[in-house]
Design brief:
Strand content: 25-35%
CATH topology: Dihydrofolate Reductase, subunit A
Helix content: 25-40%
Shape: globular
Strand order of the largest sheet: 5-4-3-6-1-7-10-9
Number of strands: 10
CATH superfamily: Dihydrofolate Reductase, subunit A
């Protein structure tokens, strides 16, 4: 069975965005891009909430075509164009969307069907609202967290309204020269 792995940048105090959704505090450099690129290149399915999907869709399909495109832009744009995308949204329709499925109801059943399909891990990128929903439904199998060396004090928390304990096992960790620490956990079931 495929696993859903939540990929998220967060502050030391557990926020994934500032109060207005700002993410300008996230540290990303070539070292992190290279590391993340190797991991996600093995993935064949990306899971997003509507807001994150629309943000990604507005940039990645054409990022490689820009004259200032970096190696990362070119690699990620190619990956994004080929990967299957799943979007949790009550308002979007999947008409004319390439490689994209919209899930608007029966989330648990629909996600479990996708987890049964052939393929690699399903990577959940950002998307705090979708992440909160999937945590509540006990559908996230692992957390790939990039803890940034900043305390925001307020914002959108990664873990909100948790009803039951979620026991995790640390698979590995890594310190980047920027001060970001990667923590890779798997949920104990």
């Amino acid at each position: 069975m495929r696993k859903i792995i939540s990929f998220m940048h967060m502050s030391l105090d557990g926020f994934v965005a500032g109060p207005a959704g700002e993410m300008d505090w996230i540290k990303v450099d070539e070292e992190i891009f290279d590391y993340v690129g190797k991991r996600i290149s093995k993935g064949d399915t990306a899971l997003y909430g509507r807001v994150t999907y629309q943000m990604m869709e507005s940039y990645w399909p054409t990022a490689a075509d820009k004259p200032t495109a970096t190696r990362h832009d070119i690699e990620h744009s190619k990956w994004y164009s080929n990967v299957q995308k799943v979007v949790l949204s009550k308002t979007m329709k999947d008409e004319n969307l390439t490689n994209t499925r919209i899930i608007s109801d029966n989330i648990s059943d629909r996600i479990n069907e996708i987890k049964q399909e052939e393929g690699t891990d399903i990577l959940l990128f950002g998307s705090p609202t979708a992440t909160h929903t999937l945590i509540q439904l006990n559908l996230i199998d692992g957390y790939w967290l990039f803890v940034n060396p900043i305390i925001l004090g307020r914002g959108i928390p990664l873990f909100a309204d948790i009803k039951d304990k979620i026991k995790l096992t640390l698979l590995n960790s890594r310190q980047f020269t920027s001060g970001v620490t990667e923590l890779n956990y798997i949920a104990e079931r």
